[in-house]
Amino acid sequence: MAGKSFVQITRDVSKALDTLRAETPEAMSGFSQLARGALRDGALSALNKELIALAIGVASRCDACIGFHVKALIRLGVSREQLMETLAICTYMGGGPTLMYAAEAVRAYEEFQEVGAKVSA
Fold this sequence. Notes:
Elements: H1 6-23, H2 25-39, H3 46-59, H4 63-75, H5 80-115
């Protein structure tokens, strides 16, 4: 596989996050609680919220964000069409640099689909 591996990126970041959880438990617990509350089903479905999170990750050019949110989207049953439409909006709003990270999100989707998105977060 050419280029970066989103499976490896999420593994590496997860390991570093484990260190942060161990050494800054209150801060990390607060962040985890915020994430759970924000991503919970409500007026928007968890899937739609993850699509929004992916869009922000793409616009922010955050490889780890792309990896983690694509994995979550696959677990939630995102269709390729939903992913592609979200990435089209990202590109529309962010232009050329965002297009390059939208392409990275496609690579992440294909990589996680290939491994079955079974890599632990």
